[in-house]
Amino acid sequence: MSRRNLLDLTLLAALWGASFLFMRLGAHEFGPLVLAFLRVTGAALMLLPLLAWRGEATALRGAWRAIAAVGVMNYALPFALFALAALVLSTALMSVFNATTPIWGALVAWLWLGERLTPSRWLGLAIGTAGVVALSWGKADMRPGEHGVSAAVGIAACVVASVLYGVAANVSRRYLASLPPMALAAGSQLAASTVLLVPALATWPTVNPGPKAWLAVAALAFLCTGLAYALYFRLIVRAGATQAMSVTFLIPAFALLWGWLLLDETPTLATLAGCTVILLGTALATGLVKLPGLRSG
Questions:
Q1: Whole-angstrom distance, CA of residue 256 vs CA of residue 259
Q2: pLDDT tens by residue, 109-134
């Protein structure tokens, strides 16, 4: 990977790692649905003019149904679910569960698209799933917290959101492979904003959130979503999808760093161990790492 692409990859990981921090800062005052709505709306306002400037806006017309589906599965629902989890879980824990996305993507590709999985990739799926179970086992407290949400619900929200990311990736691959990446990003953010509009208005906070929460929303929308997806698609074009996907392994490290520096969150040994197991499973499940004796099958 060139120095420029490596810089883009590191910046992207830092931005996506920070998204969990900003969700923690904004979810308590805005609530999950409003936070998700503001996030995708801000990102759409940033990406749509860029799409028009690139002359690719017409690409949205012929594939709007699939784009809308991706908007719901890749943005509206996962962003709301992670914002819900942010009420009760640390940035580190959310990022670790988010790192399972490629595992679910590989499983959906096998179930739906008939993609062949080697024994090495099957081992990765098993290791990653075991890591999720082990990490959840001691933390899935059923008692509701301050906002009426329990840790168990937060963990379930993270897992469901990560599964939805995996499904959306395969929908994009199946139906939108020929669509310009920027058109997919901008159009699906707009679709997510449309879907979340009414739920957000219905749950709008009665007390106006403070400046810190508004700054968190702005950073989440414009930096962690709008700018981040522009970087991501540029990286795919320049370095390829496989190298771009390696950002998955850097996001938890940055989420741990931001949580430690700014929220005084100290990750436990169990969280670090679970993260290591899940990332190992992800590397095997996606084929980024292959075990010599398990390549065929």
A1: 5
A2: 889 888 888 888 888 889 988 888 88
Q: What's the rounded Cα separation, in Å, for the pair 212 and 80?
A: 20
Helix 32-53 vs helix 77-85: crossing angle, to nearest 10: 140
Q: How far apart are CA 65 and CA 192, in angstroms?
A: 12
Distances (CA, A) of 216 to 28, 190, 228: 11, 20, 15
CB burial string 215-236: b at 16+ within 10 A, e below: ebbebbbbbbbbbbbbbbbbbe
CA distances (Å), 292 to each of 119, 124, 125, 231, in order? 11, 14, 17, 34
pTM for the predicted model, two decimal places? 0.89
Domain spans of the chain, in order of start: 3-294
pLDDT tens figures, 19-56:
999 999 999 999 999 999 999 999 999 999 988 998 88
SS3 (DSSP) at 264:
coil
Taking phi first (over 0 means left), then psi (-120 to 50 degrees means alpha), and beta for anything else, what does residue 71 get? alpha
Count of other CB atoms within 10 angstroms of residue 43: 30
Cβ atoms within 10 Å, residue 50? 14
Max CA separation in the chain (angstroms): 60
Q: What is the CA radius of gyration of the chain?
A: 18
